[in-house]
Amino acid sequence: MTAEARVRTRFAPSPNGALHLGHAYAAMRAHDFARERGGEFLLRIEDIDGVRSRPELVEGIFADLRWLGLDWDGDVLFQSSRLAAYDAALERLKARGLVYPCFCTRSQIAAAGAQPGPDGLVYPGTCRLLDEAERGRRMRNEPHAWRLDMARAIAETGALVWHDLEAGDQPARPELFGDVVLARKDAPASYHLAVTLDDAHQQISHVVRGRDLFAASHVHRLLQALLGLPVPLYLHHDLLAGADGRKLAKSEGAAALAALREAGEDGAALLDNLRKNHLPSGISRVHASYSLP
Ligand code: GLU
Which top CATH class is 8-82+196-286? Predict the structure, then answer.
């Protein structure tokens, strides 16, 4: 196997809450996928959400992973160190007329009758229609995001396909998302832009992540085509759910790994139980569907 053909996966937590069992499972899936193939497992900290990101949680993430026995290769990549790369990509898209500034607030978007899409409301295109004079004037005075002009982008790339190792070939359906945000008012890059650029930068061969991000891969495939990036293979694994049947989530107060670690539990044993599907009581694996709305 050549160096280029090496398997490389990553775990990419956002430090906006303590890691929980769902993260342990996701990190294990990406780690084991690489290790079983003699490959590398990388760690990326997605810390550019200025509102929700909490730097003090990063050390806890490292401690949790070590406690679980999950070792990563090379240096940790912090998204906050990659702002120039995100900006350069956005500038390239600006120069090609593929993005436009958007001044709308969430409530304006909802009031404009936006319909739900795979990832929140589909933007109704209000700011796409502004003329250049108004755009220039408002850009000087108002905070703005940058949105992808989806119809133009698709006209450039034509039909695209990506591949999930379990779900098979997926004709890309980025149009379902509408004009997605690539740079936010309050963050230098959106999740979609940063993750796509970083997976290429870290030469990730297999994006192994939870099925909650399955739909997002349609947008990532489009961005890869627009920016001339390599196309990784994907594996969107099942998720862990709590007693209520819903995916474990930081926001729902899923038990933090740090609490178990500090209580003296054996992290490697816990991870091995997850591997063998011996789940703690009240926890189950859910095979969320791949279907799009
Ligand atoms: N940072 C994302 C999260 O914590 C994961 C990104 C990804 O795996 O693509 O949900």
Answer: alpha beta
